[in-house]
Amino acid sequence: MRQLQAYAPTVLGILRIVAALLFIEHGAAKLLNFPVSEMHPPAFSLPWIAGVLEIVGGTLVLIGLWTRPAAFILSGLMAAAYWMAHAPQSFFPVNNGGDAAILFCFVFLYLVFAGPGAFALDNKRA
């Protein structure tokens, strides 16, 4: 098991990058209609603000710049999204479409405590 521990920073960096790319996609679908989406929130509405945070915060997490504060904000965003948009529809995440929100919330919360891992600009700043 100690052999695997040597790869922990690399795998953490990969987790951060993949999660950020998927997260940016949600914001791009809302604001840029790419990939094509049925969501077209009006400017300055809560979903529009979420889209901005998804793109900007997701980009910061992607490049590993100010990872901990960005991940903290994004974790809170996903907790709020779950309780405001998904939980009222059903108690069960499989029925309310909130699975992704829960996973993003906890992946970003983990990054707050674990840091960015490998391939991050934060590592150059330290």
From TrEMBL:
TM spans (from-to): 7-24, 44-63, 70-88, 100-121
Organism domain of life: Bacteria
Keywords in alphabetical order: Cell membrane, Membrane, Transmembrane, Transmembrane helix
Subcellular location: Cell membrane
Family classification: Belongs to the DoxX family.
Record-level GO cellular component terms: plasma membrane
Membrane topology: Multi-pass membrane protein
Listed name of the protein: Putative oxidoreductase
